[in-house]
Design goal:
320 residues; alpha/beta; Rossmann fold; 2 domains; five-stranded antiparallel sheet; 12 strands; 33% helix
Length: 320
């Protein structure tokens, strides 16, 4: 394995969660960086969780002995919705971090398989949210390999904005391209495609909302077996909208690129960007609506601005 000598960037607490971007080109560089990261962990008595595409898994397995400290996980079990991945990583970290044993993660997304611009945007947002989700987890660090072979500077810059650290030649250093919370900019939501259906709602309209969405989803070709799941997600989001969004809102539904979308808009504000992305505790009261939506839908987009209100879009795939 390649020897790596870590350094601590100025202003970076050694005990803080480390989230490193690793741009590479080709399989040889992928192996050099990831194997060095793994060897650092093993030398320090740490566990490692690896979640990379199948081809990269085969490459790593071919170079590694069957060390019980290294675990390969299948991210497809979490589904295609990036909103489920933080909870999945928390579970993997807890399973491997026996006691106070530090854990390192290697997580690579197959960006070329992003199903839409919305999916790609949410994948990037997930990468940025990892910094917030695990800011209080000093015993964990994560390396995010990124294949830069396609020479797309804009795409690499987008990824750099999500990672406080960057790894070069076996060392990590502060990434000047990282955007902290106050500077992170969402991709704007495009308007709905014509034709779309629109319905205003308020107290007492939940049945009408469910009926409207179920009919539109069925007409769009959403599989019958998924309609009950969509109905649960719609009920949760509409209920939250009425309770916390000023008592009323607007529903829109349409179909776009083999996806059925239903959008809820209201005057409320969601202050915590982690809402819906962490697993609710058994004793928790409330706060399960967005969690359920993430579990039941193929994608959930949330845009919330204090002065403008909240927009939530639920995506359900339509079989081709």
């Amino acid at each position: 394995m390649t020897e790596a000598v870590p350094t601590t960037p100025p202003g970076q607490d050694e005990a803080a969660f480390r989230h490193e971007l690793y741009p590479y080109r080709g399989d040889a560089q992928f192996l050099s960086g990831t194997l060095g990261f793994i060897q650092e962990a093993l030398d320090c008595g740490e566990a490692v969780v690896v979640a990379v595409p199948e081809h990269k898994t085969s490459l790593l397995r071919g170079e590694l002995s069957d060390d019980p400290a290294v675990t390969f996980v299948d991210t497809t079990a979490a589904g295609s919705n990036p909103g489920r991945l933080i909870a999945a990583w928390a579970d993997w970290m807890k399973e491997r971090g026996e006691g106070d044993r530090p854990v390192r993660g290697i997580g690579e997304t197959d960006w070329r398989r992003a199903r839409s611009a919305a999916h790609l945007s949410e994948l990037r947002y997930h990468e940025w949210l990892l910094n917030r989700a695990f800011a209080q987890s000093p015993t964990w660090s994560m390396l995010c390999p990124y294949d830069a072979a396609d020479d797309d500077p804009a795409a690499l810059q987008s990824m750099s904005r999500c990672h406080p650290l960057i790894r070069r030649e076996g060392r990590y250093e502060r990434n000047d391209g990282y955007l902290p919370a106050e500077d992170y900019a969402f991709d704007a939501l495009a308007g709905p495609c014509d034709p779309y259906q629109e319905l205003s709602y308020t107290h007492g309209d939940l049945a009408a909302i469910r009926s409207k969405v179920s009919q539109c989803a069925s007409d769009a070709g959403v599989a019958p077996g998924r309609l009950p799941k969509l109905a649960v997600a719609v009920t949760e989001i509409a209920t939250n909208s009425i309770r916390h969004g000023g008592g009323r809102g607007t529903l829109r539904t349409w179909t776009q690129e083999s996806t059925f979308l239903c959008e809820f808009r209201d005057a409320g504000y969601i202050a915590n960007p982690m809402t819906g992305r962490t697993r609710p505790t058994p004793e928790q009261i409330g706060g399960r609506g967005l969690w359920l939506a993430h579990q039941l839908c193929d994608l959930v987009e949330i845009r919330s601005v204090r002065e403008q209100g909240t927009t939530i879009r639920l995506h359900m795939d339509v079989p081709k």
